[in-house]
Amino acid sequence: MYRCQSAHKLVELDARFHLFARFHPHTVVDLAAAPGGFAQVALERMQSAAPQAPSSSPVIEPPPMVIAVDQRPIQPLPGLVTVRGNILQHQQMLQSVQRTLHPTPSRSSAAADVGPPRTVDMVLHDGVSVVKGQHAFSVTYAQNQMALSTLLLASKMFLQFGPAHDKGETRKGNRTEREMKPHTDSPSSSNATTPGNRTAPSAHPTSATLPVCFVSKLLRSLHSAQVVAATSALFRYVSVVKPQASRAESQETYIVAMHFQPHRWQQLVNFERHHGHREAETRERSRSKWMPKRHSLEINPSLFSMPPAVEDCGDARRMVWSCLGCGRTCMGVQPCVQCGAFASASRAGCHRGT
Ligand SMILES: C[S@@+](CC[C@H](N)C(=O)[O-])C[C@H]1O[C@@H](n2cnc3c(N)ncnc32)[C@H](O)[C@@H]1O
Predict the structure, then answer these.
(1) Which atom of ligand 1 is nearest to the CA of 33?
(2) Above 50 in pLDDT, residue 352?
(3) Closest CA to 28 of 76, 132, 100, 85
(4) pLDDT above 80 (res 86)
(5) Which of 5, 14, 30, 87 to mutate to test the pocket of ligand 1 (most atoms within 8 A of CB)?
(6) What is the 3-class SS of the chain, one letter each residue?
(7) pLDDT above 90 coverage of the chain, percent
(8) Ligand 1 geometric centre to CA of 70 (Å)
(9) Where are the transmembrane segments (predicted)?
(10) Which of ligand 1's atoms lies nearest the C-alpha of 124?
(11) Average pLDDT of 18-41?
(12) Is pLDDT above 60 for 203?
């Protein structure tokens, strides 16, 4: 018996993509996890895959753990570690996860008692945005902005706490991950859309990826294509699915992203380093144009910069929003003066309104 209906959505996503069998996660971070339905499913799947008897393998695997974060309390479960906090505060979240993954050994216990090293192998996000001041925005804008923020947070977690690079075949403990194939869901199938699917190799097909998985809720709207494009820029395989457990009349869908590409993140960092000063020079000129940038075919901060549309706002002129591309607070519905406009539907094979 699950704590809430959401659990059935993760059950469905797992049945479809074999997420737990594919990635064998030891540690899952569940963002916006209360009351704990997703966490129940994750622990159930991980515990049933964990070896029941001591293994003969010299590699000791850590027992399954879900780090569940929410502003609300979550009832305990074996294997569940709860963190009270705001998932939009990345620094705090990273520190909390760091403390949970690598607890300082107490003076009385030996370092070996801390257990085998852990990595974050999967990040789930099923939050319903309840940000202070949100009433100023449409629900779909606030929700997709939250999805974009958790994409960045998950990426930071995979970079800081993720497993080693995956070069075709992954060994985790004594198990070998199945070689993944891109999903070939048909866009015409009743409950699936695949705007971010990569059936062709990415720009750097031989580059290493991290064998990790990110699942996040988004709401179909003007902005969801941007969330899909940003996710597709960072992960090798991306699908967007509406589980049957999700009400048909709701705009809710789930994005499932597999195999994080650290080199794509590095490109983003390099872009900021190389182009940041040029942006400052051209800021005044571009202020009146809001044209796509010259570098729009590359991963760049505009992917993560999502101004509200006029229809998302009560009073568009007074609207204050946070740019996730550069971190600045912006006003109005124009693109961020630093990051520019996201205008690359073709870049990720996406269409606005997906
Ligand atoms: C639909 S519920 C999540 C259900 C959960 N996946 C489950 O299976 O039980 C949405 C949750 O998002 C949480 N939430 C929304 N905004 C948040 C934020 N900024 N930080 C932390 N939690 C947040 C709410 O407190 C709420 O518990």
Answers:
(1) 5
(2) no
(3) 100
(4) yes
(5) 87
(6) CCCCCHHHHHHHHHHHHCHHHHHCCCEEEEECCCCCHHHHHHHHHHHHHCCCCCCCCCCCCCCCEEEEEECCCCCCCCCEEEEECCCCCHHHHHHHHHHHHCCCCCCCCCHHHHCCCCCCCEEEECCCCCCCCHHHECHHHHHHHHHHHHHHHHHHHHHHHCCCCEECECEECCEECCCCCCCCCCCCCCCEECCCCCCCCCCCCCCCEEEEEEEEEEECCCCHHHHHHHHHHHEEEEEEECCCCCCCCCCEEEEEEEEECHHHHHHHHHHHHHHHHHHHHHHHHHHCCCCECCCCCCCCHHHHCCCCCHHHECCHHHCEEECCCCCCEEECCCCECCCEECCCCCCCCCCCCC
(7) 54
(8) 6
(9) none
(10) 6
(11) 97
(12) no
Dist. CA 350 → ligand 1 center (Å): 28
Which ligand 1 atom minimizes the distance to the CA of 127? 12
Query: In which band, very low, low, confident or very high, does the pLDDT at 139 lie, cut at 50, 70 and 90?
Result: confident
Cα–ligand 1 centroid distance for 35 (angstroms) = 8
Note the pLDDT tens digit of each residue in 234-260. Answer: 999 999 999 999 999 999 999 999 999
**CA-to-CA distance for 46 and 25, rounded, in angstroms?**
7
Q: Note the pLDDT of residue 66.
A: 98
Higher pLDDT pick, 172 / 120: 120
Does residue 63 surpass a pLDDT of 80? Answer: yes
Considering the four listed CATH numbers 3.30.450.70, 3.10.129.10, 3.40.50.150, 3.30.1050.10, the one that applies to the domain covering 6-49+62-101+117-163+208-262 is 3.40.50.150
* 141 CA from centroid of ligand 1 (Å): 17
All structural domains of the chain with their residue ranges? 6-49+62-101+117-163+208-262
| 4 CA from centroid of ligand 1 (Å) | 12
Q: What pLDDT is recorded for position 5? A: 93
pTM of the model: 0.82
Which protein residues touch ligand 1 with a CB less than 6 Å away? 3-4, 6-7, 32-38, 70-72, 86-88, 126-130
Cα of 87 from ligand 1 centre, angstroms:
9
